[in-house]
Amino acid sequence: MYEKIQETASWLKERMTTSPKTAIILGTGLGQLASEITDSYEFSYADIPNFPVSTVEGHAGKLIFGKLGGKDIVAMEGRFHFYEGYSMKEVTFPERIMYELGIKTLFVSNASGGMNPSFKIGDLMIINDHINFFPEHPLHGPNFPTGPRFPDMHEAYDHQLIKLADEIAQEKGIEVKHGVYVGVQGPTFETPAEYRMYRILGGDAVGMSTVPEVIVARHCGIKVFGISVITDLGGFDVPVEVSHEEVQKAANEAQPRMTEIFREIIRRSE
Asked: Per the confidence metrics, is the pTM higher than 0.85?
């Protein structure tokens, strides 16, 4: 695996004309942020050696380089999921590449189901912490030399970036929530009983991604900031059916607010 990482990183370095320190992962229905990237050039996942390929609707499958907030960035338009049949090593392959390319900060976004009674569809939830319910751990197996065998996770999501995001949201008049993201394997949406269980355990939102990416990023010493877009609600007295199309629609409508926060954090960060 390490040889494949080196091969892929070298292939990209030979073709890169920028030097990004920031990476962004765009989740389901959140690809419009890519249109905000200026001076861009891109590579299809299918053309990048050893790179997995997105199979989910709403994930374009492109690695985009350019500028956002006046800074060089790289954005993943589409991510990889455990439920697609990929191993955790494949799901988190891009984060290993990010480290090799010199990325210092990772922004993650996702569409998720809200379990907190104060949430409504379209809310932005800044992720304070997560609970890992995936059946396979992304650091399982021989330890990569990018971090310790037993990495500390007390600050998986960077406190300073969260504070800055709150300041920006207040300035811009953007309402944000805070909460704990529960990562599950999917691909089924949760039953009402599962929603209630995750809520009892301390979760505010649940989704099928993000947690493995964050674990590997932190193992590599990359700082992380995350936002969940609440695209559906569950676990309440009245059952709410949900479809992938409805999730995409809700995420799409929340994109401008999320993009504004991401752009301003990048602009104001070193």
From this structure: yes
